[in-house]
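Late entry, written up from scratch paper. The run itself happened at the end of the previous shift, but nothing got recorded in the book at the time, so transcribing now.
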Amino acid sequence: KSLGISPSACSAIVLISFSNFVLLKHSVHPLTDIPYMAVSLIAIALLEILPRQKGWRKVNAFSLALLCVAGGILTRRIGVALIPAMLYAFWPSPRLTTSFRALVFASKLRVTFYSGVFLAALAGISIFCRRLFYLPDFRFANTGFRAVVMQISFRLTDFGEILLNASAAKFGPLHGAVFPAGFLLLTVLCIGLCHARQRLRPTHIYFIAYLAILAIWPYADARFWIPVLPVITLVAFQVIAPLLDGKFARTLVLSYLACYGVLALVAVAFTTRISFSGNRFAATYGSELTRAAYEQARSGHVAPENIAFVRVLHRFGGQNEPKPSDR
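Output as recorded:
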């Protein structure tokens, strides 16, 4: 309600978001994307309802949001994008001081509970600060103008795959459609954020912070956008919805959604095929670069150049770490 979305539109947004091939593909992977998505969306939901709460309900909602923000930061470093949204949701409220003053005169049980919340948040922030000053992932392959061009190409590829609901590697001769699709989605998102500037919500603040961080993240992978897929769909919907009164625009959008749904079913089928591939997993899932590593992990004879990659595979699989072969 705070975002001006009807329940039926909200259901459609959730369905579209959870039908994206990136989410379908990585929902079965033992990575932190899905747990962080859950924690961050809970935090944003709490921050959205915060202004409507009063008294102890407001303090309770803020405390739970604070725990979710701390949990998000500990799960993924990108969780720092939740901090501006949290400050935006609560800082301007005049009830902040009043609510926390009332805490002093509350029962011992409440004092103990909120003291524990504060200590947990403090521990999370201290751990995050230790990580903040050690960021070996920020290593750019290029410098200067080339680095800027590379970053733009990374993000356009990510957005193109999300909009087309398929991996760029699967397009073959149609690979050139990825960049225009990415530019189209980025343009729609920018328009949506511009329209929302007069009525910004914590959701928008979080998304802007997330965009700013990913803009300098020197890697390309649509997986990075999994946590904000519902927000991307929401912002795009708010731009497109007023255009649906026209017959041509409505037909175009429905045609796109039909193709989007077909590709989602293809992604489900492909993921299911991989899950039950058994001995053919390496050939079914692995690319030319990773197929050898998967096969080495299965056989136990690991080439020295792949030992780090295979160690991760065995760690996820709960097996003993392999030893490099003598060859």
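Confidence is low (pLDDT under 50) at residues 132-136, 318-322.
(Scratch paper discarded after transcription.)
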